[in-house]
Design brief:
- The complex is a heterodimer.
- By secondary structure, chain A is an alpha/beta fold.
- Chain A has a single domain, classed as P-loop containing nucleotide triphosphate hydrolases (Rossmann fold), CATH 3.40.50.300.
- In chain A, 30% of the residues lie in helices and 27% in strands.
- In chain A, strand 7, helix 6 and strand 8 form a beta-alpha-beta unit.
- In chain A, helix 4 crosses helix 5.
- The longest helix of chain A is centred in the middle third of the chain and has 14 residues.
- Chain A is globular.
- Chain B is built from eleven helices and four strands.
- In chain B, strands 2-3-1-4 form a four-stranded antiparallel sheet.
- Helices cover 72% and strands 8% of the residues of chain B.
- By secondary structure, chain B is α+β, with helices and mostly antiparallel strands.
- Chains A and B meet through helix 2 and helix 3 of A and helix 1, helix 2 and helix 8 of B.
Chain lengths: 223, 296
């Protein structure tokens, strides 16, 4: 599903965000990426979503070699990924339902099925009472759940969430992690970045620790 | 294609949202486009009237040929038969001296009293020849060279001046049409670029979700087309009102000009405005959305 061999990412200003990353992720795997702010977690996710291209090494995601100037193929790849962005990236002045549906529209899903499945996805994250609420009127936690619903409704083979527990209290953070990990199955791998390691300890998962651009991998239990 | 049809309602809704979220600049774009297209409609009508006028004058273009003294009526009729056979002669008609007197009396109006001073009819019989203006030189030289023809009087100067005026009008019309086209393209593409700039976050999100450029661009293209067509509608409305209020008045003032029927002229202007607004709207929008690549 994901294969990285000696991958590095150096930004235009010379900042070395990632160095010598070697990594494989299998279908159905649960992966936590941890590390302090600025350690390179988000840079790693940017590589996986094709927002940045590796400056060295070879990275393949869902069979697609990630490199610059591959726009068309990259967009096709992104349709198979369910991203939950750190700042959500919800479309303002649209309702929660419209935001969830927009991700499905790109896939060419028939309107009636789209509306039904989007409503179900919102129900699954506990927002059935907020379907027609404009997203700017939602709380932080609710907006995050809309972003999760938008990501999962497309039945992605790779669900990627960037710092979904940030700015949430302990209970809400656990709740969000539960929701995200519940979408993992034999086909779908879930990758979550977080700096709140106390919330994920003891789980059967692959733990990738990022420190100053270098990673260490630990597999606990049956991830 | 499937994605397009499933999302047609969404694209239209998004297009109206794009317009609604930035009302002031879009109102100005709409008004600006409307007035520019109105101007285009006016020029087009002027062009059409001028063209019709020249056409009418051309169809009425005629020269008069006068006989030498030796030619009697029988000889004149023989010459006229020869004239009819010439290439470029549409019609040749014998005008008797009596008929020529009547015509001139009519032309002189109140001044016709002067004709009473003559003991006998001062006018001669002649031949009225309707010609094809494009073959004017050829016909004139052939008719002048015919035996029995003393001289030929033509209104070439007037016709050539008129033709020059209409050619200038056509050139001006072309320039105005080009100006209308360029201005509308700039207005619409600027409006689209502004919309893209204001929605850059949304565009970026759609990209990250894997949306192709066509999916992102369509609402903006539609917004541009809607605004230009609305501008075209405004221009067409103004033309209709103007024609209803003012055209009959113009007709009364310049009765000597053969103006085309108001309905025909109005239909021409309205269909041209709507057609050109659709084309310009599409082109302007496509120019505008070309910036999506950069914004992404």
């Amino acid at each position: 599903m994901i294969e990285a061999k000696e991958v590095a990412l150096t930004y235009g200003d010379g900042t070395k965000a990632l160095k010598n990353v070697n990594l494989t992720v299998q279908p159905g795997e649960l992966v936590y990426i941890t590390g302090h702010s600025g350690s390179g977690k988000t840079s790693l996710l940017k590589l996986l979503m094709g927002i940045e291209a590796p400056t060295a090494g070879k990275l393949t995601v869902l069979g697609q070699r990630m490199r610059k100037g591959n726009d068309r193929k990259l967009r096709k790849l992104r349709r198979k990924i369910g991203p939950v962005f750190q700042e959500f990236k919800l479309i303002e002045r649209r309702t929660a339902l419209e935001n969830v549906m927009v991700g499905m529209r790109i896939l060419g899903i028939p309107p009636r099925r789209m509306k039904q499945e989007a409503a179900e996805a919102l129900k699954k994250v506990g927002l059935e009472h907020r379907l027609h609420t404009p997203v700017e009127h939602l709380s932080w936690g609710e907006a995050q759940r809309v972003a999760i619903a938008r990501a999962v409704v497309r039945k992605p083979v790779l669900l990627i969430a960037d710092e979904p527990t940030g700015n949430l209290d302990h209970d809400n953070a656990l709740n969000i992690l539960d929701i995200l990990t519940s979408f993992r199955d034999e086909k779908t791998a879930v990758i979550i970045t977080t700096h709140a390691t106390h919330l994920i300890e003891g789980q059967a998962a692959t733990y990738i620790r990022v420190k100053e651009g270098e990673i260490t991998i630990e597999r606990r239990g049956e991830a | 294609m499937k994605t397009f049809f499933y999302n047609l309602g969404y694209f239209i809704l998004e297009a109206f949202r794009t317009i609604r979220f930035h009302p002031l600049s879009n109102i100005f774009s709409f008004l600006g486009t409307g007035f520019i297209l109105f101007l285009f409609g006016l020029v087009l009508m002027g062009w059409s009237i001028g063209d019709g006028l020249v056409g009418a004058l051309q169809s009425e273009a005629q020269v008069s040929a006068y006989f030498t003294d030796q030619v009697g009526e029988a000889g004149a009729r023989k010459i006229i038969d020869e004239m009819r056979a010439l290439d470029g002669v549409q019609e040749a008609r014998y005008v008797t001296a009596g008929e020529a007197y009547g015509k001139n009396r009519e032309l002189l109006g109140n001044e016709a009293e002067i004709l009473r001073l003559f003991d006998k009819n001062p006018f001669e019989a002649f031949v009225e020849i309707k010609i094809d203006l494009n073959k004017m030189d050829q016909v004139l030289s052939q008719v002048s060279g015919m035996r029995g023809i003393e001289y030929v009087r033509d209104n070439r100067d007037i016709l050539e001046k008129l033709k020059g005026i209409v050619d200038t009008l056509k050139l001006l019309g072309g320039l105005v049409a080009a100006a209308v086209g360029i201005t509308t393209l700039v207005l619409i593409s600027h409006m689209i670029r502004q919309g893209i700039y204001h929605n850059r976050e949304q565009i970026n999100t759609l990209r990250l979700l894997g949306a192709p450029n066509s999916f992102i661009a369509l609402p903006f293209v539609m917004a541009g087309m809607i605004l230009t067509l609305l501008g075209g509608g405004l221009a067409a409305g103004l033309i209709i009102v103007m024609m209803e209020q003012g055209y009959s008045g113009i007709n009364e003032y310049i009765m000597f000009l053969p103006l085309p029927p108001a309905q025909e002229l109005c239909r021409l202007a309205v269909s041209a405005i709507l057609g050109i607004s659709a084309v310009l709207g599409l082109m302007g929008s496509l120019f505008g959305v070309s910036s999506i690549r950069k914004e992404g």
